[in-house]
Design a protein that fits this description.
The chain is mainly alpha-helical and 173 residues long. It has one domain (2-171). Helices cover 54% and strands 8% of the residues. It is built from 7 helices and 3 strands; from the N terminus they run H-E-H-E-H-H-E-H-H-H. It has a 3-stranded mixed beta sheet with strand order 2-1-3. The longest helix has 21 residues, at 115-135. The chain is globular and about 50 Å long.
Length: 173
């Protein structure tokens, strides 16, 4: 959605993702109560286990500045429900600029998540991500993403050809 892409295009974020939690009035069709509560518990677990300061990692809407995030995406190992957490956690650890954005969302009856069956799998995936981070599995990707982000941020800052003392004097004028 444009709400997710625009902050990236303006250079304000490297990763944006939709959130059902930030403005619940934007939810058109809610999930069944049990599944909605299971999602809330999972997101609390993610916050506790990873330190991510976000409220909804599983909404599904995501946008990435590929020039910065490609190494992280390529290093991802989780293929199921935890892949969202993996990408966000590694990007957050790399110090990238992440932004959670409220989005309009409707539950899709065709969704295949079953709270009881999939909860253990999701918990194990979060544990795997933490262990892989500790073992250095993502180190190369984190370094590459940080380097590229710094390069792009430096290139987007205004520069002056004047000597440093004159550049500072003209900025205040």
């Amino acid at each position: 959605t444009p709400k997710l892409v625009e902050p990236i295009e303006r250079g304000e974020a490297d990763v944006t993702f939709g959130s059902r939690a930030l403005d619940r009035s934007l939810i058109g069709v809610h999930q069944p109560w049990r599944r909605e509560q299971g999602g809330r518990v999972f997101n609390l677990l993610v916050r506790f286990a990873t330190g991510l300061p976000f409220w909804d990692t599983q909404c599904g809407f995501k946008a990435f500045r590929l020039s910065v995030c490609r190494p992280i995406i390529d290093a991802a190992t989780i293929e199921r429900f935890g892949f969202d957490v993996e990408l966000l956690y590694v990007a957050y650890t790399a110090g990238l600029r992440l932004r959670e954005i409220p989005v309009r969302w409707d539950h899709n009856e065709g969704s295949k998540v079953e709270v009881m069956r999939d909860s253990l799998r999701m918990f194990n995936e979060v544990r795997t991500i933490r262990n892989q981070l500790r073992r250095g599995v993502y180190d190369k990707a984190i370094k590459a993403a940080r380097t590229q982000a710094a390069k792009e941020q430096s290139a987007s800052e205004p520069h002056s050809d004047a000597p440093p003392d004159l550049a500072n004097a003209t900025q205040g004028a």
